[in-house]
Amino acid sequence: MARVFSGPLRVHYAQAYLLPAGSSTPGLKACFRGQVNGLCGAALPGVLFLITGLHTGQVGFSVDVVDTPPPLDDSWEDIVEASLSVTARDMALVEWAGTGAYHIPLPQGRLRARYCARGMQRGRELDTSPPDAAPVDTYALTFWPGESTGDTVIRETTEVAEYLHRRARGFRK
After folding, report:
1. Count of domains in the chain?
2. Residue 91's domain spans which residues?
């Protein structure tokens, strides 16, 4: 396993993104259209739209790149998976409005992405955290080679995740 990012990630409007470096931020509805999960929007090629519980502040975040699907970790409260086709040579984990961008070395080709959340409900209830506060919600994004298949909800335990999944399913049109 290669950990390619670990640290705080600044969010606003509960959003972060994985994009080709230098790309503009995509629209929420376009990224989730036709999906069953509302946490990791992968409907646009080469883009992931990531939703957090916290509206504004810093969340804990990690990104791993592995060779095979990792085992499920019971410590994560909410887990979704989606497919991503990477064609850009430079990908970045991007904070809301491009205020920060972190190089994420991904291989080109078809990848499967697992997005895991812990403390998402606490983050939603807190809404905004002070700049120097420790994160109340934490996220992990893991990539491995895999064929393109639909997105799926692996685990849903929080009210906020249930709400976001239901909202995304309304973006079908």
Report:
1. 1
2. 2-172
